[in-house]
Design brief:
- It is built from no helices and 15 strands.
- By secondary structure, the chain is mainly β.
- A 5-stranded mixed β-sheet has the order 2-8-7-4-5, with no helix packed on it.
- Strand 7 and strand 8 form a beta hairpin.
- The chain is rod-shaped, with a radius of gyration of 26 Å.
Amino acid sequence: LWKYIPEKPLAAFGCDTINGCSPLIVNFTDSSDANCDDIKSYQWNFNDPSSGANNTSTSSSPSHTFNTPGVFTVTLIVTNCMGAMDSAVKSITVLSSPVITTSPNPSLCVGSIATLTVSGASTYSWLPATGLSSTSGSSVTVSATAPITYTVIGSNANGCSTNSVIAISVFSIPVAN
């Protein structure tokens, strides 16, 4: 007697990154070996319950967005043309990005000065430098002569950053008769 045992596939995959800041988009690439004609099915589990219906995929090379920080164990299960299965696993580390809060968008008269403040990160960078007392720090003063929009980029200890926009309205000083 003899017993035929079909060859098992060899599940394998790569990804363009294994760590980064939230939200983190990861592109996965299947590199499985079917050990027969082809892979019949792919079942991905991203171990990311907060992504709801997007927590799984049956695509051969899907993308997934991890919106929350944590370590996610991604699993790929492949089934080959003979019905045999194999799985592969990789861990994806998602770091938290800062949530920054800015002062309200001020309205100024030409020649007036306002203080802009931001919180929620470790370091800050302001753009453009036009009319600002400094391009870094959690508090800067602005003296605007025309409407302008500033972007503040806040970074945390993880090296992750988030930006916010502050629009400054500038009004002419009324002329009295």
